[in-house]
TrEMBL record:
Residues 7-159 form the N-acetyltransferase domain. It comes from Spiroplasma diminutum CUAS-1. The keyword Transferase applies. This is Acetyltransferase, GNAT family. InterPro entries: Acyl_CoA_acyltransferase, GNAT_dom, N-acetyltransferase. SUPFAM superfamilies: Acyl-CoA N-acyltransferases (Nat). The lineage of its organism: Bacteria, Bacillati, Mycoplasmatota, Mollicutes, Entomoplasmatales. GO terms for molecular function: acyltransferase activity, transferring groups other than amino-acyl groups. Coiled coil: none annotated. Pfam families: Acetyltransf_3. Keywords: Transferase.
Amino acid sequence: MIETKRLILRRIQIEDAKDIFEYSSDLENTKYVDFITHKSLDETKEIITKIFIDDFEGKYGIVLKENNKLIGIIEARLKENLVDLGWIINKNYWNKGYCTEAAKEIIELYRQKFNINIFTASFKEGNESSRKVMEKLGFTYKNESFNKNNIKVKNYILV
């Protein structure tokens, strides 16, 4: 568990299903991520078990300290000498600095724990909120590419 001023970053639990379903079932929230919008709470529970409980490494729930509500997820994928970051935040909590706060802490953790100094992140074209987060964190534009679904993404790097 990691604490920041306003957040707790922790392992995701089955009890988080309702909070995760709240944003994962909303098309506005999922239009820029690489997973299919959730159709039911049971589907969310299955995904939590498969992706976040059975294979939890590098995946953190973003929880508000004030009310213990899970408002998103940040993932740090360790790849040899770098970490690739990704995140999703409930739209009701956009533009409040939560993602930037969580990502700063994860970057610092991986710098200290694994001596990693290269971080990457990408966003689908049009996702200006993620671009702003990356720039606030000090990331710089690297290039454009296409993801596994043949959608144009902009790639950023932090060294």
